[in-house]
Amino acid sequence: MNKFLFTILSYFSVVFIKILGSSFRYNLRTPMPEEPVIYAFWHRNIIPLMYLHRKQKCVLLISSSKDGDLIAKPAELMGYKTARGSSRRGGSAASRELIKLAKDNILAITPDGPKGPSQKIKDGIIYISYLSKSPIVPAVVDVQHEKVFNSWDKFRLPYLFSKINVTYGEKIYVDSKKDIEKKVTELQNAMDKLTKENKVRNVK
């Protein structure tokens, strides 16, 4: 795709997300964090969370692939900062950039991205938390009415006026490099538990 068409598509995507998102009926079951933390959320939930957090000072970790381009440009047009690359053990260029930005920004990472397996934690986010000294906050989503795509992550597109439950979990701190594996399990268990509890039937 040439640059002009890509730019047009990006602006169209932003308009689409803003129109769609403005119709969502969000139910925040726990308060949204305001201080610098690291949001951990599943890749399939990008659209409802991208709209919800558009006014926060967030930095998104996005793959440097062509698929990542489709997310990065609209995110930047909506006011997000982006770091392009992977979170591999905190050693990639993108990870180092995130660590520098963590002091004054909220970081947002999909720990099952960019290629899966879906809803399985990789250790990159744990390393970033350890190196940046920022706690991880699990963020889970459930949607009343949606289109679920046949992609690796079962990407979800909420329909207009859909009710959406969002729950933020307790902060997870990574104080020692020796705790990396244990914290992967802790985060996985937290997100699995919150996902089961965060059902849209609880939206009033």
Task: Please describe the structure with a list of short key phrases separated by commas or semicolons.
globular, 37% helix, 6 helices, 204 residues, seven-stranded mixed sheet, Glycerol-3-phosphate (1)-acyltransferase, alpha/beta
**Major sheet: arrangement of strands:** 1-9-6-2-5-3-4
| Rounded mean pLDDT score | 94
Q: Measure the end-to-end span.
A: 44 Å
Structural class, by secondary structure, is: alpha/beta
Describe this entry's structure for a reader.
The chain has one domain (3-202): 3-Layer(aba) Sandwich (Glycerol-3-phosphate (1)-acyltransferase). α1 crosses α2 (46-52) and α1 crosses α3 (66-77). With 204 residues, it is α/β, with parallel strands linked by helices. The strands form 2 sheets. It has a 7-stranded mixed sheet with strand order 1-9-6-2-5-3-4, with helices on both faces. Strands 7-8 form a two-stranded antiparallel sheet. A hairpin with a 7-residue loop joins β7 and β8 (156-158). It has helices at 3-23, 46-52, 66-77, 93-101, 124-132, 180-197; strands at residues 25-28, 38-40, 58-62, 81-84, 106-109, 136-143, 146-148, 156-158, 163-168. It is globular. The protein has 6 helices and 9 strands.
